[in-house]
């Protein structure tokens, strides 16, 4: 063991971001990853949306999301500067919309909660919504604008991080935690097997559509007859449609879920029916019993896992705080609420 | 040129079946095909359904369909005997169903026409339908049983024909009709380019679902809120869901069409929502101005093309009659109505 050495187990967006920040702190880093694109990031739409994602009772998690959202512009700019890869950080803002009166009533309760946390959410009527986003259905009953919510393309972020780390990422399946060296376990759902901590896979299906660029401009998150869907348009005409949540480990693309996603997507934005369906992707989010991440020491290792739906958003703050902990042994007070010890 | 030689241009189900019958008549046959699975047969569900397919005004075509349906049992048995490949010929019969009262009114007009042609179509009420096929939705307003309609697996039929023909199938893209040898043009939509005859591509999208074998037993062809869909269950749990019709040449999978097919399929058979969506396939049917095939001499060549939705059903009769014409110069009277000359 060399002083200043660390092994990161897991080459998803969290493991790679942690490794990058560790390198920047002067550590000799090796990332062990089984290769491929099995990580949740591969299906992630890349919404950076504290105001669009904060759920009831998640006050503390929301604080961490806001903190990480604030670090994203510099994180994205630094990646672009070091690699020349534009990671698709986009600041158009997010619309949350409701198709029916019932959907609107449900949404309004959530918006009120989010405003109580200090998040920017401005209710809008149907015509104001369509002024901002003409592709929205005229049937919508209402919505809200979250001007501070953002998006990024997770596949590009991973490509940039892999480019920076180069040979430091070693293709290796890890069946037990390496001995004799400081280790960060950032293995997503695989963290359960390596550490015994309660991280479970939550299956998600995402569709990728492709059409005319610019038809849809904002990220749209919405409810259509009780079904939740989000639509994330990229600059090249791709629109990500997500995402189902199931407590299952299989990788099958269920016909009824494709139907539900397409129906909700076209209910909210009818022109999407004319787009091409170019990909159906199933991946598994790593979730914990309270759906907040595991960040910090657990026995002999440091854990950075269990980010559930928020891995992309939380990557910058996770990377900074975990790298500080590894390099300097300093646990930031922000980590307190997310200690793996809460499940031991 | 050798006496008794013939070149077949096109290695889809029609070209291969014609070639097989020509070999059996003592001819030296070469099939020129560009390889791959671009043919309409690759997406075809394989319904052998004169009673389920006969459209208004298609009396003469329906006679040919009935004739070919009668030849299918021997055709399938002979393929199995020569190759050991079970081509999935199934005699469970077909149900045509209607979701709403409007769908039922439309269906009843078509059933009356089909009965007037002598086809077996027995109307059934909702409960009788569900006695035959318990997976059908209780919302259905009515249906009919076509006990003589059948199905076969077109991909297996092509595999069997390719196995029989072996080296006689040569991978070659044909840009003009070969000279100095008798030629059968069976090139699907490509027949237009080679002969100048009016064959146009009609784009079709088919979905393949997979689930528990035996959940659905009958071929189901139906209307759901004005959308037509058919569901063809295979013995292994696969269910083919088809098919859209568009006058387009592209190969894109349109999101709205996937939505329409899945919605109609699950409206008629709700349990299909739990099946896996394993494939989306686009291919182009070769259609003529009157949607009947082109069978017979056209200038220096013999044509067997333009079978539109009925290529699989019409393969046996097409193969027999065209091979007779090639080998013995005898045009069967059944061919009269389908002469390519009607468009010259």
From TrEMBL, chains A, B:
One of its GO terms (biological process) is thiamine diphosphate biosynthetic process. Its EC number is 1.4.3.19. Residues 6-325 form the FAD dependent oxidoreductase domain. It is an enzyme of class 1 (oxidoreductase). InterPro entries: FAD-dep_OxRdtase, FAD/NAD-bd_sf, Gly_oxidase_ThiO. It catalyses: glycine + O2 + H2O = glyoxylate + H2O2 + NH4(+). The keyword Oxidoreductase applies. It comes from the Bacteria. This is glycine oxidase.
């Amino acid at each position: 063991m060399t002083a200043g050495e660390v092994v990161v187990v897991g080459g998803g967006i969290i493991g790679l971001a942690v490794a990058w920040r560790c390198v920047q702190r002067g550590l000799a880093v090796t990332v062990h990853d089984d290769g491929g694109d099995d990580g949740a990031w591969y299906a992630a739409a890349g919404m950076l949306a504290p105001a669009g994602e904060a759920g009831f009772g998640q006050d503390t998690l929301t604080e961490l999301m806001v903190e990480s959202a604030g670090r994203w512009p510099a994180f994205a700019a630094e990646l672009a500067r070091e690699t020349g890869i534009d990671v698709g950080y986009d600041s158009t803002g997010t619309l949350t919309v409701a198709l029916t009166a019932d959907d609107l009533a449900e949404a309004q309760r959530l918006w009120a909660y989010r405003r109580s946390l200090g998040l920017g959410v401005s209710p809008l009527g149907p015509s104001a919504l369509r002024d901002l986003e003409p592709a929205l259905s005229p049937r919508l009953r209402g919505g809200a604008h979250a001007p501070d919510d953002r998006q990024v393309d997770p596949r590009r972020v991973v490509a940039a991080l892999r480019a920076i780390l180069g040979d430091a990422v070693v293709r290796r399946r890890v069946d037990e935690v390496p001995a004799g060296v400081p280790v960060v376990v950032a293995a997503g759902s695989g963290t359960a097997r390596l550490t015994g901590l309660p991280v479970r896979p939550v299956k998600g299906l995402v569709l990728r559509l492709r059409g005319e660029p610019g038809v849809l401009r904002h990220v749209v998150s919405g409810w259509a007859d009780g079904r939740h869907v989000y639509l994330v348009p990229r600059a090249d005409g791709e629109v990500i449609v997500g995402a189902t949540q199931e407590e299952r480990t299989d990788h099958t693309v269920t016909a009824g879920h494709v139907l539900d996603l397409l129906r909700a997507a076209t209910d909210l934005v009818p022109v999407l029916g004319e787009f091409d369906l170019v990909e159906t992707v199933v991946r598994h989010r790593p979730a914990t019993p309270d759906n907040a991440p595991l960040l910090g020491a657990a026995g002999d290792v440091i854990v950075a896992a269990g980010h559930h739906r928020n891995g992309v958003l939380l990557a910058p703050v996770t990377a900074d705080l975990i790298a500080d902990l590894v390099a300097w042994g300093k646990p930031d007070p922000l980590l307190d609420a997310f200690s793996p010890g809460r499940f031991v």
